[in-house]
Amino acid sequence: MDTSRVILSRCNFSNIGLRHLLSGTFSKEKIISFDNQKNLFAWAKEVRRGSFYTLYLVLPDSIYSNIVYFHWLISLRRKTNNAAISEIIIAYHSDIFPELFSCICSHYKHRLVNINNLTNDEIIKKMHTQRHPSKNKIIKKYIELTHMEFCVLKLMIAGYSIDDISIVHNIKPKTTYTYTNNIMKQLGFNSLKKIYSCGEIIKASIEHEIIREKKKQYTNAKIKTYEPQFA
Q1: Beta strands 51-59 and 2-8: pairing type?
Q2: Is the pLDDT of residue 117 over 80?
Q3: Distance between CA atoms of 101 and 83, rounded to whole angstroms?
């Protein structure tokens, strides 16, 4: 069985560093790196049947406001010959990784690995011996907001201010702030500015139903029927 390790990163330093780490651990496998998706997709189309590879995507901090990385995350399996992928490992090096991006990764069955402040040996160990998060706990694949939270969020990414939203929905600014604070907690952001700066990513997440409105659950109550009484 032919197996490979494939790296995708726009950062040349990350490409070289991870390639060096993997080659020391997987000396008998091919180590291939790409700095853009187009070349990766072209290579994936030529992968022979019966060949498998592990794909590593290294995310920079700029993912939080860069729509490019969102599209990378949602298209990796669809455009890279999913049948040949053994696993997709998303490596990031930040102390803060918003819940939204964790949901995006979970939604598309990627495994997240935080490599921040780790030694080379620790990075390799964490990537290849750590159990998949889904084995240990329930991983959220989408974020559900109430009807009003969903409406407020859509207005925010459209550029409306808190005062504008309050006027549109005829509510007090204090009430609007309550909605926005709940939205921040759900998305895992620490400021309203992050929501505005990630507008494109949030909009795309809504379109892909990673962020969605919570639907009311109605129970099918059993209705008692009575037979007509005859004299």
Answers
A1: parallel
A2: yes
A3: 24
Q: What are 134-182's pLDDT values in tens digits?
A: 444 556 788 999 999 999 999 999 999 999 999 999 999 999 999 999 9
d(CA 6, CA 105): 18
Give pLDDT tens digits for 48-79. Answer: 888 999 999 998 877 767 888 888 899 888 88
Task: Please write down the long-range contacts of 23-29, taking CB distance under 8 Å and 24 or more positions apart.
Answer: 25/124, 25/128, 29/3, 29/4, 29/5
Closest CA to 194 of 69, 58, 66: 66
What are phi and psi for residue 137, nearest 5 degrees? -155, 170
d(CA 14, CA 223): 63
Q: How far apart are CA 99 and CA 167, in angstroms?
A: 29
Structure tokens given for 59: 């995310």
Q: What is the pTM of this model?
A: 0.80
| Other Cβ atoms within 10 Å of 190 Cβ, number | 11
The token pair at 162 is 């808190």
Amino acid at 198: C
> What strands, in cross-sheet order, belong to the sheet with 51-59?
30-34, 2-8, 51-59, 85-92, 111-114
